[in-house]
Amino acid sequence: MRLTEWLQRWWRARVLLKKRIAEPVWRRVVADVPVIARLSSADQHRLRKLSSFFLHQKVIVGAAGMELDEYMRAVIAAQASLLVLNLGLEYYAGWVEIIVYPDAFIVSHGQQDDAGVMHHSRRALSGEAWGRGPVILSWEDIRPKPYAAHGHGLNVVLHEFAHKLDLLDGSANGMPPLHSSMPPQQWSDDFTRAYHRMLSHLDHGHRSRIDPYAIESPAEFFAVVSEFFFEKPELLQEELPAVYAELVAFYRQDPLQYSAS
Ligand SMILES: [Zn+2]
Predict the structure, then answer these.
(1) How sure is the predictor about 229, in pLDDT bands with cuts at 50, 70 and 90?
(2) What is the Å distance from ligand 1's center to 175 Cα?
(3) Which terminus has fewer CB within 10 Å in the chain: N or C?
(4) What's the mean pLDDT in 206-210?
């Protein structure tokens, strides 16, 4: 074993010894979060480890009076880590902070148009992801709700962390850095075709089973289909099979294979 490898193993064992998410907290997360409940026990075990490392590497802070406990931190860490379960935490390198508000937060953005004019917009958001900066979340929009709201395919934590993956190559264009086995042209063709089909479907007054927010931009499209990939894999596979297959290749997991789905 090389020294660097030995050191890495030693460091990991030490973090796990001191920082592993406590058993009762982890059990609650598994029970409350359906995308985690349906993983095999072996995958849940790997996810608990990865989420513990995630919490060791990132700082989760409350804003506007929000107080966070171990359970809340674990709910966020577990879902963020689910996206990279077979990719690794390196995919979240280069930034450390996650800010949590009690409820939807108001942001005011300035944007300069081609003519050099600044436009300001104020909106209430449930989540936001910055390129090299923090992920911002509203607890009200991400807290597990056992009796309602599940089954629609929406998941703000998965959405914002999917943006982080997209932003890895510096641009929010709906295409994260692909593995060498994945032809970028194929991805681009599959996503562009699906995006335009959904756009024209909605333009003609039809309803969509996938959150119509997807057509805001290619970046939002990738974030929304990532939510559905984990939350409603059957639906996404039925509606957009080519996109589903690209996501299986990118995330290196196939939620349709999970035991209880
Ligand atoms: Zn978004």
Answers:
(1) very high
(2) 14
(3) N
(4) 92
Higher pLDDT, 109 or 242: 242
Q: Which residues pair with 127 in a beta bridge?
A: 137
Identify which of 143, 152, 127, 139 has the alpha carbon closest to the alpha carbon of residue 28. Answer: 143
224 alpha carbon to ligand 1 midpoint, in Å?
7
Residue that the structure tokens 């409820």 belong to = 103
* C-alpha 73 to ligand 1 mean position (Å): 21
Three-state secondary structure call for residue 123: strand
Name the CATH architecture for the domain at 3-257. Answer: 3-Layer(aba) Sandwich (3.40)
Instruction: Classify residue 60 as exposed, middle or buried by CB count within 10 Å of its CB (0-12, 13-18, 19+).
Output: buried
Taking the C-alpha atoms of residue 113 and residue 73, their distance in angstroms, rounded to an integer, is 38
Q: How many whole angstroms separate alpha carbon 168 and alpha carbon 131?
A: 8
> For the packed helices 41-57 and 3-19, what is the interaxial angle rounded to 10 degrees?
90
CB-CB contact of 231 with 257 (8 Å)? no
Query: Which pair of tokens denotes residue 81?
Result: 């880590």
Domain boundaries, the chain: 3-257
167 alpha carbon to ligand 1 midpoint, in Å?
12
Is a pLDDT exceeding 70 seen at residue 61?
Answer: yes
Indicate if the alpha-carbon torsion angle 168, 172, 176, 177 is positive or negative.
Answer: negative
The Å distance, Cα 117 to ligand 1 centre, comes to 24
pTM (2 d.p.): 0.90
